[in-house]
Every structure is written in structure tokens, then in C-alpha cells.
Amino acid sequence: MTKAFRSGNTISGKEGRLFLDGEEMAYVKSFNANFNKNKVTVDVLGRRMQGHKTVGGSGDGTLVVYKVTSKFVKLAADYINKGIDQYFTFQEVLDDKSSGRGTERVTIYDVNFDSIPVAALNAEGAVLEEELPFTWEGIDLPEELAAGF
């Protein structure tokens, strides 16, 4: 008998946590990190279609947080006023117990923010959010997950 897909095995993104340099960020609205391949085209005699060869890659992503701290404004000010450009480590922990899939832990290294909102107001009374695009340069996935998550 083949194992059928069950809707309960899907993983809810609400069942996650995010840590920045080991400190849990309870005010995260959304987080994503992407690996983008750098490819070159390879023309091959006798083939009408171009081939593609991966020759490297880059990491980027976006963090959206609720405005509850001036932490990120301070990062911008430190670079503008002192020339200090900081790099961080993010660890995403995804643990939806009802999915039956176990806990996923992905760590990305050398995270550097691309742009930082430094001031915002809203007359409509909406909750303020900060969208922080970033790049990253390294990744780690625990061995037990890499084998069969």
C-alpha cells in the first residue's frame, strides 16, 4: 500500500520561531530566505536547446517585523555615523507538531540588511511594520533533516 498524502501533514508557518544571533524575535510577522543559482548557458553541438550549468549562487530574503523596537534604526545609524556594518545569524525553527514531520532548523550566516526603514507614521492608526530585505552567505541544516525531512 502506498502512503497517501494527508492534508494534516502540511506544515503551518505560524508554528515557527526566528532567532537573530540567538535572541528570539517574538515580533516577526513574516520571514523568508531564498537560494538563487547563478547559471551560465552551455551550447552543445547537435542540440537545439541550450544547456545550463550552475556556477555559484547567492542568498537573499525578507524579514517583516512589527515596529516595537528601534534596533534596526540603530543599525542604520551605526553604519551612517560610525561606518559599522553588522552581519548576523538567523535560525528559523519550524515545529508544527500536528504535521508529524518533526522540527526543521535552518541556520543562515553572514546576514546583512540591504535597506532599513528609519521613520514611519500612519494617520489611519494601522500597526506599523518594517520590511527588511537582506542577503546571506552560508547555510546549515542539521544532518538528520538533510537525510530525510
Structural summary, described in words:
- The chain is mainly beta and 149 residues long.
- It has one domain (7-148): Roll (Pnp Oxidase, Chain A), CATH 2.30.110.
- 12% of the residues lie in helices and 44% in strands.
- It is built from 2 helices and 8 strands.
- Strands 1, 2, 3, 4, 5, 6, 7 and 8 form an 8-stranded antiparallel sheet that branches.
- The mean pLDDT is 90.
Helix content: 10-25%
- Give the class from helix and strand content and strand pairing: mainly beta
Total number of domains: 1
CATH architecture annotation? Roll
> If you consult CATH, what is the topology?
Pnp Oxidase, Chain A
How large is the share of residues in beta strands? 35-45%
pLDDT averaged residue by residue: 90
| Largest sheet entry | 8 strands, antiparallel
The low-confidence runs, each spanning 5 or more residues with pLDDT under 50, are none
CATH uppermost class: Mainly Beta
Total number of beta strands: 8
Protein name: Phage portal protein
Organism: Domibacillus antri
InterPro entries: DUF2001, XkdM-like_sf
Pfam families: DUF2001 (PF09393)
List keywords for this structure.
mainly beta, 149 residues, 8-stranded antiparallel beta sheet, Pnp Oxidase, Chain A, single chain
